[in-house]
Design goal:
There is one protein chain. By secondary structure, this protein is mainly α. The chain has one domain. Helices cover 73% and strands 0% of the residues. It is built from 11 helices and no strands. Helix 7 packs antiparallel against helix 10. The chain is globular and about 70 Å long.
Amino acid sequence: MQSGATRLTDSTTTPPPPLPATQPTPIASWLHTVALFVLLTLTTLFGRLRASGAHLHPTALARHYATTMLLEWVLLALVLAGIHSRRAFLATALRNRATTLAQSFSLGVAVYLCGLVAIAIVSLALLKTPLAQHRNEAFVLAMLPRTRFEFLLWFGVSLSAGICEELIFRGYLLQQLIAWTRRPALAIVLAAALFGSVHLYEGLGAILPLAALAIVYGFVVQRLHGDLRAVIVAHTLQDFLVGLLGLARPFLERTHHLP
């Protein structure tokens, strides 16, 4: 009787064996990812040439904004076309039930503020380095909206960048790099370096601050198990609020010698 009780106690107190850890798997082929790297390089170079034209001809800003939005969505479509399970990818990124839309928006505002701090810290650290002299601020400021219609288009550009770039960099590329490296922290840094590099047209000095911003976004996404809604809000706010500098354009024209 006692031995039976002992066996019963052992069976109820012994924990079950742990389940084997599931390793992340690539969501697309390596060839598709390499093709994306090539496309990002080409679009960065093309964007620099196209933006240089808009810099010389301010009246072309509306066309520049419209083309930018189109390129963002075309690039996202090409990325989605190569994903093995698009429905699962989009469900994780945009329909994650861990947080409500209101919570995602509030968290996005907080992430935006954290991103500003990261940019400020890295930018201040670079002030004493030669990289501080390699920021194309006049070029960036020349791209800011001037009219109400341009502000409306600018919001479209900001929203398109928030959605498309987050799905590409913190969605697709981050998952691919985690699957390849098996090290989430390393994958976040690599994806952030790529994100900063595609903004080369803003100058070498802008790459590290933007990479720091991307690291913040990457860790937030990893913490939220792939939910991108908060970083989409943060990214959209980041870009749109930069456009508000256009309201100070008369002053900036005098201080930065804008056309």
